[in-house]
Design goal:
single chain; 321 residues; Immunoglobulin-like; 5 helices; 49% strand
Length: 321
């Protein structure tokens, strides 16, 4: 095969892949809702450290706390308030949280979940390798001797119910990071790699916590729609309708538990529920709800979506004559 033929073949394959992706991908509705199915006021307690790397436990605690702060549906209790409380109650010295202590913290702070755990190993490794120092047209044309530094952080993370003291989750997890440095160049230290590895552990902790205690869906109100694959694409997103229209509500359940109950309530300007629908939904399922307006008086309406008994969204819209 000639070089020109190979290039044309590669371009053709690329075009086919792009077209396939465009045909398969369904655009998400514009609105996002994340709802906690139970109260998620979280405190991240001190982690224990049974590894030989000093400070790894505090690095992991900080990364977990920072990651949870950015998660929708999760409220994180202030570390300064928590540390002051633990010192006052002399709970921070042993590193052991028994059920009675967990309940006491929950009572004093109002948090519902406590996150803690143990860093039980920090494995570091340095090995010789090569690094590309010159590229030409996407190809490496010159290599040089280098050293690859890597870290693997292993931890056990627990989620404790602060109302009962019961350990609800206990998960072994790990995170890795590496850096390749040309021989003769300064590496610095493993601390930055440990922080990167802790970030990966924190992402897993946050993902596990949110997937267990929260639900996520996307939704939007439209004038029309078209079917695509297993889903729907809305046309003319709006919150203003006329009496001759039908409201098209599209919902994509992006993270739910299979078998969750989903309720739709259509509410008129007086606040009365005038229509209702109930479904049992599955993860990654799409649903279309059509509501006719021909018999509705002008005014400001609402549609509410409830997932697993919790309000996910309340979308207002107006109906004109």
């Amino acid at each position: 095969m000639s070089d020109q033929t190979g290039v044309l073949l590669a371009i053709l394959i690329g075009v086919v892949l792009i077209v396939g992706i465009v045909l398969l991908v369904i655009p998400e509705p514009s609105e996002r809702a994340v709802v906690a199915t139970e109260r998620l006021d979280v405190a991240v307690l001190a982690f224990r450290n049974s590894s030989s790397w000093r400070g790894a436990e505090e690095t992991l605690r900080g990364r977990v706390e920072s990651k949870l702060v950015g998660e929708a549906g999760v409220n994180v209790f202030s570390r300064s308030q928590l540390d002051a409380l633990l010192i006052e109650r002399a709970l921070g010295t042993s590193g052991i949280i028994d059920p009675a202590t967990a309940v006491e913290i929950g009572t004093l702070t109002g948090v519902s979940k406590l996150v803690t755990g143990t860093v039980y190993a920090v494995d570091t490794l340095s090995e010789p390798t090569t690094i590309c120092v010159q590229w030409d047209g996407g190809n490496c044309v010159e290599e040089a001797a280098a050293n690859k530094y890597s870290v693997k952080l292993l931890a056990q993370v627990e989620v404790i119910d602060a109302r009962t003291g019961r350990i609800e989750q206990s998960t072994d997890t790990s995170g890795s990071a590496e850096s390749t440095v040309r021989q003769g160049a300064a590496f610095g230290s493993y601390d930055s790699l440990i922080a990167s590895a802790a970030d990966k552990v924190a992402e897993q902790v946050a993902s596990h916590l949110t997937s267990t205690y929260t639900r996520e869906l996307r939704f939007g109100l439209y004038e029309g729609y078209k079917v695509k694959g297993e889903g729907y694409i809305g046309k003319g997103e709006t919150h203003r309708f006329s009496a001759s229209d039908d409201v098209q509500l599209i919902v994509h359940f992006t993270r739910v538990e299979d078998g969750d109950l989903f309720d739709i309530q259509w509410i008129d300007p007086s606040g009365a529920i005038v229509d209702h629908a109930e479904d049992v939904v599955m993860d990654d399922e799409w649903q279309l709800y059509t509501w006719a307006l021909s018999t509705r008086a002008p005014g400001r309406y609402h549609v509410q979506g409830w997932i697993a008994g919790s309000l996910a969204f309340d979308a207002p819209f107006t109906v004109s004559p």
